[in-house]
Amino acid sequence: xxxxxxxxMPAKTGSTAMWYMLSKHPELAPAKTKEVAFFNKIRPxxxxxxxxxxxxxxxxxxxxxxxxxxxxxxxxxxxxKNIDKIINLAPNKNKLKMIFVTRNxxxxxxxxYIFRRAKKEIITNKKLHEKFISDIDDEFRKHWINxxxxxxxxxxxxxxxxxxSNVKRWCHQIHDIYFVRGLYMxxxxxxxxxxxxxxxxxxxxxDMKENHQRVLNKIFDFLEVDRIKIENYKTNQGWFWxxxxxxxxxxxxxxxxxxxxxxxxxxxxxxxxxHIDYRV
Length: 280
What we know:
The protein is mainly alpha-helical. It has helices at residues 15-22, 38-41, 44-49, 51-59, 80-89, 105-124, 126-135, 138-153, 167-179, 184-194, 205-210, 212-223, 238-242, 253-274, and strands at residues 5-8, 28-30, 69-71, 97-102, 200-204.
């Protein structure tokens, strides 16, 4: 059976912790891996050409014997083009539920930047990579090795401001990698257009940090499963990546002000529509 809900969590909004916590619930069925990335790869025309075959292919990411509500958490799904693919492939759109998580766009940007720059440094520095591999646990090591070829291909340059001579490179290397993921209203507008209000749950990363169980209870109620107590799971945090390479020094106060200004209009709209306030 096709998943009845999707967690739409942009990069660095707590998706790894959420994956581990939800996996503890007996009524939920996690995929074989946290990030299936299925909808990142398919094209819209594939959905219209053979939706049944695509659904069957997607379902191979779960064990056949798994019971409960299927789920996976791929951060790339939180952008409009992939949300649209999910909705169009779902066999029963009226029963599909979407859970979208926001985070202060500036904080999300900084965390994402530190994360990707550290990964690039680890991959390109042999000694650092050996130390990293020896530090992480078996599960993380398996995931890291599986994603190694993808991470090697990424172009994670130092942050730079756009100007007339570099605007195309800036759009490709900075805007499309980091900035679009914090434009939450683009995704929320599409969700409101395609689904009914009762099919959408909006959550904040900041609330999860303050009281993870309260946020989990909201999710359980929304999915109509039992509330159970689950221990907080803290992983993939900024301090961990800074142990190997601290890219925070690459971001000046001028850079951060540029990021704040970039998101201002979107944050104003977000506040008007949802009362989530990231304007400061």
